[in-house]
Design goal:
There is one protein chain. This protein is 14% helix and 43% strand. It starts with a helix and ends with a strand. Strands 3, 4, 5, 7, 8, 9, 11 and 12 form an eight-stranded mixed beta sheet that branches. The protein has a four-stranded antiparallel beta sheet with strand order 2-1-6-10, with no helix packed on it. The chain contains two helices and twelve strands; from the N terminus they run αββββββαββββββ. The protein has 161 residues and is mainly beta. It is elongated and about 55 Å long. The longest helix is centred in the N-terminal third of the chain and has 18 residues.
């Protein structure tokens, strides 16, 4: 009986300690052509201090393979959806030209997913970036605005024939 109490106390203590650990960075999920990948930010910016370089690289951009004409589904967690965010993507035309989309902004603070579709069935999406924004107030000028605080990136390769 005494041993089971000790085991129960140790287990409860383990759960309490595990609950106190700091959460990891937000993950954005990309799904393309039958494959899913979760990514952490590749760039993070901190505007709370007057730094010459407020942004720093955090990791490597993940890669998936995708066939021409296939969409990319993007799913963001609540901490991203609760802030203004946007998607920018690049695509390759059948002639091999790389083109970039206009930004696709989400400011309603309740959008958790978006499907990026190539402009034509012959185009292939080659990159998708998700950018979360934060409101920044400049102490020296009093100006305010939105600046990117985190960027998640995905690069897409064409499968080998």
């Amino acid at each position: 009986m005494r041993r089971s109490r000790v085991v129960a106390l140790l287990a409860a203590g383990g759960f309490a300690v595990a609950g106190c650990s700091a959460p990891g960075p937000a993950e954005v999920t990309f799904y393309a052509d039958g494959h899913t990948i979760n990514t952490t930010p590749v760039l993070t910016c901190d505007y709370s201090q007057q730094l010459a370089q407020p942004c720093s690289a955090k990791g490597l951009t993940q890669t998936l393979r995708i066939r021409p004409g296939k969409p990319v589904q993007v799913s963001v967690p609540g901490e991203v959806a609760d802030a203004p965010w946007q998607i920018v993507y690049e695509y390759v035309t059948p002639q091999g030209e790389f083109k970039q989309s206009d930004p696709i902004p989400f400011t309603s603070l309740d959008r958790y997913a978006y499907t990026v579709t190539p402009p034509t069935p012959a185009d292939r999406i080659s990159a998708v970036d998700v950018q979360r924004y934060t409101a920044v107030l400049r102490a020296d000028t009093g100006e305010s605005g939105l600046l990117p605080s985190d960027v998640w990136g995905l690069r897409l390769d064409q499968p080998q024939a």
